[in-house]
Structure prediction request, 379 residues.
Amino acid sequence: MTAFALEPEDRKWCAELRALAAGRLRPLAERGEPGRVNRPLVAALGELGLLRRVLPAEGPVRALDLCLLRESLAQESTEAETALALQGLGTYPVVQSGTAAQRDRWLPEVVAGRAVAAFALSEPAAGSDAAALTLAAEPDGPPSAGRWRLTGEKCWISNAPEADFATVFARTGGGAGSRGITAFLVPAGRPGLSGTALDMLSPHPIGTLTFDGVPVSRDDVVGEVDRGFGVAMRTLNLFRPSVGAFAVGMAQAALDAALAHTAERTAFGGPLKELQSVSHQLAETATRIEAARLLVYAAAAAYDSGAPDIAKRSAMAKLLATETAQHAVDTAVQLHGARALRRGHLLEHLYREVRAPRIYEGATEVQRTVIARELFREG
Ligand code: COS
Prediction:
């Protein structure tokens, strides 16, 4: 990729992805139950080789691939997009910091679409302030035994409680705040682990996980004891631009719908698009989407080249793209009028989908904090 454009083969791949999403994935998504894990859809993402592209067997995860996948799928099926992204988010900590045994056990299952992953960081009293989490990992026996029991609750966890495993961040207590947190790979079915599905505005599966003395051992530790906060933050550095890509995909779908509608719908003696108040809104929206897309691609390319300022770029990309998508979808709804609010309309769906990304993986306000801190640190 140059600074300003995708390579022709990337553009071709995106077109293929959109066709796959429309032809193969959307029908499966439509048969799913809102708010529940759609296992046939996850299996299809595996069979089509898309999960392998997110989590390659060899070499690093490529942020630009992840972004192009998310943007392209989002244009045709947000359910397929999010199912793919959540496999990556829950599994990437293991790819990045896990042991060979953990990777051998779970990666083949995840990329085949047979195992469903979750990323369990947020708690009822620790969302934006992730370092305030209190899920307790209490020693179970002498320190040399390397065993703990997890007690507490995780909340607003995508794919919970149905996921087959979760990367869980718990307080082992070696230090205060971000210093005493450890990441554990916790498979479903461990004694004391339960959870409930939450009925949310956002259409994808989200739930709670309750830990009542759940046993974990040093074999389950992802990375180092007391160094789990870094595992979470490095995961978010990769995934935040890709949330931006998801948002860009939704924004583009909304703009496409608005272009088609305003060309076809007549009012006041002609097509809506001939009203300058309409065409200027479309022009403004398209310009903002293009700016967001470029920032997402730039952040992804910076990630892939190992740039030092990735936390800042990643935050900027997520911030601009998710806020832009909210504006784009809202504008498209307004240009469509009441028909867009009818349950089942594409824009009614996007209106629900577009809200959560401004909150999850770091709310817009958190991204501003990250950016400001980096600016002062650089200064
Ligand atoms: N990349 C790599 N390392 C990072 C990092 C990043 N983006 N952000 C923080 N760190 C590291 C710091 O370098 C520091 O390391 P040391 O302990 O080795 O010095 C450590 O993490 C603590 O950093 P900091 O003091 O900045 O942490 P804070 O508690 O102030 O928290 C924010 C920082 C607000 C940025 C963090 O809590 C956050 O990202 N919150 C949002 C959480 C989120 O996205 N939740 C969504 C869950 S997924 S839906």
Observations:
- The longest strand covers residues 147-158.
- Strands lie at 117-120, 136-139, 147-158, 165-171, 181-187, 193-194, 206-217, 221-222, 266-267, 270-271.
- Residues 119, 121-122, 128-131, 177-179, 229-230, 233-234, 236-237, 311, 360-362, 366, 369-370 surround coenzyme a persulfide (CB under 6 Å).
- The two ends are 30 Å apart (CA to CA).
